[in-house]
Amino acid sequence: MTGTRPKQRRRPRVRPTREQTRERILAAADTVFRERGFHPSRIEEIAERAGFTKGAVYSSFANKDEIFLDLLVERVAQRSRYVVDKLAQVEPGKARARALGVALTDLMDLEPDWPPLLLEFWIHALRDPALRERLGALRMTLRRSVIEAMESDTTLPAEWSATLVFALANGLGLERITDARAVPDLLLPTVLERIFAAT
Fold this sequence. Notes:
Elements: H1 18-36, H2 43-50, H3 54-60, H4 64-88, H5 94-110, H6 114-126, H7 129-150, H8 158-178, H9 187-198
Helix pairs in contact: 1-2, 1-4, 4-5, 4-7, 5-8, 5-9, 7-8
């Protein structure tokens, strides 16, 4: 008489939580957006990269705009913390303005594919008033981190200073991607140091 092997029980499939699903979708979207750009990227590609169906993506996000905005929220929080941490290590005055320039230049190099992607979404958002307002609110969050850190270093209104800083950083970031020789490491730190010294 031969014995029969007991049937092995299948382990119940553990489904990811809603939060885990969102995180996987966002990670996949980040990769797809960087590789293809905002407009050419499709929800189907993001779903496939994340290992989900298209329906699973739509159950977490209304559309591609929502996915990008969530990624942007993460970026703004990360960049704000990075800039604030760097400025906290320096005494107020010209040295802090220079440190701000160094921090922003570092960010240009950490994610060189992000500025053109943001510019693409920026142009897209300009055609949608509601989307433009949400993007503006996120940009204000980033500017506020500089306003709070640099308010005592300039006689200009803090909002003006922050807007000037990011206009310079955004423009120079795109120029640096196009031709790194045109935007050496010391350009933004030197310009900010002189601007803040004159105000």
